[in-house]
Structure to design on (364 residues):
């Protein structure tokens, strides 16, 4: 079976599973809502294009043709409370798994993580600074031309991009970026930024609880505005990654062999690093630091669909959405309403140890 056909078959099945997981998640909560009611509530809120308007610029004219009889309370719970959180979880999981797949291929290491180049640490510094020291953020962002009172998400996104650029700048010499040097630079920058975050937390006072929840990965305050900001960025950049899946396959052979086969290695590495970092930054900025999604999901899918990135990238991304929706549903179903990052760590850490153990056994 050709790679394109295989990717389409697996992706279609996973998309159906994702929609089923989203529908199931919307029924779960302090108030149990039947599947039929969830479907009707979502259809009631679904706009349908009915024409084109030219007043004030070209645009679509939308209408809401569905008007099912749903109790106002249930409509509000499904559309206003649960749906934005569930959809954002799907988008963030999609982004982290896609970035994890790219980073594992980039570093030729199935245990690489999307935060390996310091993106998560940079985002953490930006977010914690915005929470605990907003005056400092204003002082720093003023020269950058950013508006005063920069929000947590903007600060996190800027911090993530700056950290990734810093790692790349440190690791690049003479126009070349050795993967080993990039990895070591990432570890060093992560350690330093982690120390700065710890310093801010020690002096955070009453805002420490909010900062810690963000660092754990939390979707409690998800809103449709977050979905509207993150989704276009993630989908556009994911589409930009798809043409590089063949290059990722060739890079697995090694850089010298890739050059021999006609791959512009340094250019490809720059594109993959930049796009992977921005995708991760977009996810972390709206959801906080959620670990193990970009490690566990691509690894599991690699065992199922194989190492061909033409199949692995789209299937891992969709499976990442399923994984995070499921774990977030579990997180908000507990009595303590845990941050989703706690649940993903509880699942991912044992799996990571299993991978290490399995690797040691095969090396004996």
């Amino acid at each position: 079976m050709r790679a394109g056909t295989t990717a389409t078959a697996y992706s279609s099945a996973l998309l159906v599973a994702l929609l089923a997981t989203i529908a199931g998640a919307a029924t779960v909560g302090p108030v149990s809502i039947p599947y039929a009611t969830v479907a009707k509530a979502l259809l009631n809120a679904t706009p349908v294009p009915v024409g084109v308007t030219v007043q004030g610029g070209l645009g679509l004219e939308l209408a809401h043709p569905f008007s099912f009889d749903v109790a106002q309370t249930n409509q509000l719970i499904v559309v206003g409370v649960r749906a934005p959180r569930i959809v954002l979880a799907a988008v963030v999981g999609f982004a982290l798994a896609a970035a994890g797949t790219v980073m594992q291929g980039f570093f030729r290491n199935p245990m690489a993580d999307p935060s390996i180049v310091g993106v998560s640490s940079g985002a953490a510094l930006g977010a914690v600074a915005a929470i605990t020291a907003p005056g400092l953020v204003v002082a720093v962002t003023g020269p950058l031309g950013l508006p005063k009172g920069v929000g947590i998400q903007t600060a996190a996104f800027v911090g993530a991009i700056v950290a990734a650029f810093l790692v790349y700048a440190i690791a690049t010499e003479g126009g070349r970026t050795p993967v080993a040097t990039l990895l070591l630079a990432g570890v060093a920058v992560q350690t330093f930024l982690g120390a700065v975050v710890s310093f801010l937390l020690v002096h955070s006072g009453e805002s420490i609880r909010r900062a810690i929840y963000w660092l754990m990965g939390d979707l409690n305050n998800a809103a449709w505005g977050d979905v509207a900001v993150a989704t276009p960025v993630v989908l556009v950049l994911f589409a930009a990654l798809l043409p590089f899946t063949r290059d990722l396959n060739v890079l697995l052979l090694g850089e010298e062999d890739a050059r021999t086969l006609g791959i512009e290695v340094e250019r490809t590495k720059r594109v993959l690093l930049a796009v992977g970092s921005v995708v991760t930054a977009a996810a972390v900025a709206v959801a906080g630091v959620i670990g193990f999604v970009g490690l566990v999901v691509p690894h599991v899918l690699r065992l199922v669909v194989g190492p061909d990135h033409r199949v692995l990238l789209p299937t891992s991304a969709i499976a990442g959405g399923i994984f995070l929706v499921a774990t977030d549903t579990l997180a908000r179903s507990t009595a303590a309403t845990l941050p989703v990052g706690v649940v993903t760590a509880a699942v991912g850490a044992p799996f990571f140890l299993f991978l290490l153990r399995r690797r040691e056994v095969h090396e004996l």
Observations:
- The first strand starts at residue 48 and ends at 53.
- The chain has a mean pLDDT of 86.
- Residues 87-357 form a domain with the ABC transporter involved in vitamin B12 uptake, BtuC fold (CATH 1.10.3470.10).
- DSSP finds 15 helices and two strands in the chain.
